[in-house]
Here is the input.
Amino acid sequence: MALFQNSVLKKYLASQSSQPIQEAFAVYQSYFHNPQIRENIRAAKEEQFQEGFLRELFVKILGYTINPMQYFERFDYEIDAMVYEFGFSKKIRRIEEGGEA
Here is the structure.
């Protein structure tokens, strides 16, 4: 079963301006299709590139704000919360205690 009805999708897509989408896709291509960057991403561990991925895709390409609320002191807090959510907490604890990942 589809998430949205086809008529709703067609209506929504028809109302979108293609210019911002094309501009965002050009920025996406310039970063994620760069052969050197792609090789660096492949060589990195997931945890190493996680913050960079979030910043590049969501902030620079999609226009999100990193810290929309004043009480967030640093971006690391949000990343840590997400890392713990996805079950990396044991690995993080080992690293914090001086062990290996």
Summary: The chain has one domain: 18-96. Residues 92 and 101 are 7 Å apart (CA to CA).
